[in-house]
Structure formats: C-alpha cells, structure tokens
Amino acid sequence: MITLVDVHKAFGSQPVLRGVSLEVPKGLITIIIGRSGAGKSVMLKHIIGLVQPDQGRILVDGVDIAQLRGQAQDALRQRFGVLFQGGALFDSMDVFDNVAFPLREKTRMGEGEIRDKVLERLRQVDLLGMERKFPAELSGGMRKRAALARALIMDPEIVLFDEPTTGLDPILVTGIHRLIATMHARFGFTGVVVSHDVPHVFTIAHRVAMLHQGVITEVGTPEAIQASADPLVRQFITGALEGPIRAD
Amino acid sequence: MLTLLQRLGQLLLRILARLGRMMLFLLTSLYLMLLPPYHPGRILRQMHFLGARSLTVIILTASFTGMVLGLQGYYTLRKFGAEALLGPAVALTLIRELGPVLAALMVTARAGSAMTAEIGIMRITEQIDALHAMGINPVKFLMAPRLLAALVSVPLLTAIFNVIGIYGGYLVGVNLLGISPGTYFDEIEHSVGWSDVRGGILKSFCFALLIIWVCGYKGYTAGYGAEGVSRATTEAVVLTSVLILAGDYALTSFLI
C-alpha cells in the first residue's frame, strides 16, 4: 500500500502540490487524472523518491521513503518499475540491452538466464524480432512497449506509468491499455497510472483520483467518477470549455 | 546603496553555491570511481570514444603546431646564431606547455562537448531518472568510466601530440630549412629532462580530470529542452577551455 500524506511541493515560487493525500491500494490499478501541468508527474516522482516533498510524507508499506538513504533506498526502488512518459530507453543500447539492463546491474543472473527472461518479456509485449533495434529505429508505440518490458523485467510489486499513451493513435492507445491490463492480470502488481486520456483509461482502472490545482479533489471507482456530480470532474471528463476549470 | 550591496551579496552567494555543487559533484564522482564494480567494458568504450576517436584531430593539430614552431623558432633563433637549438625550443615548448594544453583543448572540443550533449539529452529525456528509479547511481554510471578512461587517454594523447609535434618541427627545421638531423635530436636529448616530461604528464592528468568534471557536470545539470542542452554544451566548452588555460598558468607557476 502506498500512502501520500499532505504532500506539498513548490519549484521556486511556483507551488505544484498543495497538500496531496491519497491511498493507493495494494494489487489494484489507481489512475490519477487531471489537466496538463496539474502536478501528476511530479506526484508520481514523489512516490519513487525522485523528488523530495517540501512537506508531508510518502509511505510505502508504512515506510517513509524520504527517510531512506543508500542501500535501503536502492532496495525499495527495486520493488518499483517505472514506465516514463517518453519511455526513457537508453539511446546507446538496443532493445535487448535496454530490457536486460536492470537484470545485469541488479542481479547475479547468468547471460543465458537473462536472455530467456528478456525474450519472454519481449514476446509478452509483442516485440520479438526487434531486440537488436535501437530506440531511434522504433515507432512511438514500440518504444512504449519496450519501456514496459524493461519496467516489468524485475517482476516489480509496484509499477508507475507516467502518461503511457501520450502521443499514440487511438488504436495504439487501446493496445497499450490492454497490455497494461494483461500484464496486471498476469503479475498482480500495484499500478499507478498518470493519464489525461479519459474516458479510455477507465477501462483498466480499479480506482480513479482527480488531481486539480495541487490537491486530490475526488477519489472513487471509475463508475463513481463517471457519475460524479462534482463540476470539476464533470468538466474534465466531458472536456467542456465552460465550467470551473479555465481553458488557458 | 543597500540594494546594490544586497544584490552583490546575493550574486556572490549564488556563485559560491554553484561552485559548492560542482565541487561536491567532483568529489562524489571521484569517490564512486574508486568503488567496485568497475565495468571494464564501459571504460574501454569510453577510451575508444575519448582517445582513439580523438587521434585524427590530435595528429593534425600536433603536426601543424610542430611545423609552425619549427618555422618561427628557426627565424627567431637565427637572429642570435642559435639555430642549432631549434630542437630543444620545439620539444620544450611542446612537452612543457603546448602539448598538454592543446591536446586537452582538442579533447574538450571533440569529446567533451559530445559528452555534455549526451548526458544533457539523457537528463531531459528522463534516462537519468530511469537510472535513479532502477536503484542505480547515475553519477557512478555516467562519470566513473569516463573519468578512468580520460585519466588514461588524455596523457597518452598528449604524449602522441608531443612526438608528432617534434617531428613536425623536424620536418620544417631539417627538411626545409637545412638544420642537421643529428643536431636537432642531440640537442633535444641534452636539453629535455625528466622533470619537463613529468610536469607535462601531471598537467595532462589535471586537464583530463577537469574536462570530465566540467563537461559531465554541465550535462548532468542541463536545463529543459534543446535550448538547455545547447546552453550546457556551450558553457561546458567555454568553461573547460578557460579553466585549462588558467590551470596551465597555475600549474606552471607551481612546477617551474
């Protein structure tokens, strides 16, 4: 279970998170929705400890990750897999080496075992045959799938997805959502997905949280969120120009 | 008046904070460089990038530097009837000063700038964040192999620069201007001491460290987008070049 307690964060004089509190239940997929610039990615980076809060706590199974240092921090991070917005594949490595990288760095597995595991993951994300391609040679959807294979290679308990479908066409969006759902069914990880791809993203959600102006304004099941009477949520889901959210 | 003083104070504090961050980055990099694992494959790849691929530019620069030293030296020394000392003039200038400085400047221009751009792009495309997220220290991953590779490659490139430069001077002095080959090399042998060579090697080690430190730091802290990387690359090349020249003066004062 991941718990955010009254998390505040400002960059210079610009406040981004103004007291985020949220519980992410174990084994379920929680979607964070909200406008671009609402602080969704910053919130995700707090969960993995890439950004430290100015105030508040982030607890993973009761452990405050801001207090961890060195090996304890590394050990916690190995429980995570992260799919970054642009994939964050290493340009200098081909797909195989990118996916194998965490295994080579963080385990004592032999090359044969690594090869089997990498090929298995690549088969699961439908990228077999692409293992010797470099990231620059892949399409956007392929890069996302390769990044997903890398995020899942260490069998993480928690997977964070930062806008996994941004820049993809609707068919690829459905494909990536289905892939996340399939992988979740297979591995049972706790998922946190940052997205503004509504309502499509609700198909993979167990819970949805709306982040607006640095605070969580509503949390519920996808059905409850879609039936919400909150004008903020309604305007965001329908994409209406008129409403409490200004279209600037 | 107070506002001016306040602004000056704020500026000074900002500069000191930046210098402090740079120094911490260097100390962390050096500390992590000494810790296992060492990843010899990555070190060799960096040696190839920093060293082997800089050879062409080093050979070209060294040839022309040696040739122009031979030409200028010959006509200057002839005024005093001391043409026979052309060999030592060329060799000492190269070994003590121009070899380490020009080789370091060439490595900065060719490899240092590319390194800043590469690390800067890794920063803006979240590749460095991905390393953090995997529990891998990005400073160790990015800096340790480059530091080790530079500490081997830059002194070797400097040695190559010196040898090629001396032969450039030989080409002009002996083949074009008629000094005897025996005189050229005999005088070098008599005049160049181990202390000259040692000073040059020490300089090249210091410059290697400087290049990787400044270029690595600038890339690691690159700002947002293409403009951020472009600014970081320019700043890295300018700052490294200035520090090499200033450091050369400081080291020469210390060694002489």
**Shape of chain B from CA axes?**
elongated
Q: What is the alpha-carbon Rg of chain A in Å?
A: 18 Å
Secondary-structure element string of chain B: HHHHHHHHH
Poorly predicted parts of chain A: none
Note the total helix count of chain B: 9
Which segments of chain B are poorly predicted (pLDDT under 50) over 5 or more consecutive residues?
none
Largest sheet of chain B: none
Secondary-structure element order of chain A, N to C: EEEHEEHEHHHEHEEEHH
Q: Assembly type of the shown chains?
A: heterodimer
Number of strands of chain B: 0
Describe this structure in words.
The complex is a heterodimer of chains A (248) and B (256). With 248 residues, chain A is of the alpha/beta class. In chain A, 35% of the residues lie in helices and 24% in strands. In chain A, helix 3 packs across helix 4. With 256 residues, chain B is mainly α. Chain B has one domain (45-255). At the A-B interface, helix 2 and helix 3 of A face helix 4 and helix 5 of B.
Task: Write out key terms for the chains shown.
heterodimer, A: 248 residues, alpha/beta, six-stranded mixed sheet, 8 helices, 10 strands, 35% helix, globular, B: 256 residues, mainly alpha, 9 helices, elongated
Question: What's the quick description here?
Answer:
The complex is a heterodimer of chains A (248) and B (256). Chain A is α/β, with parallel strands linked by helices and 248 residues long.
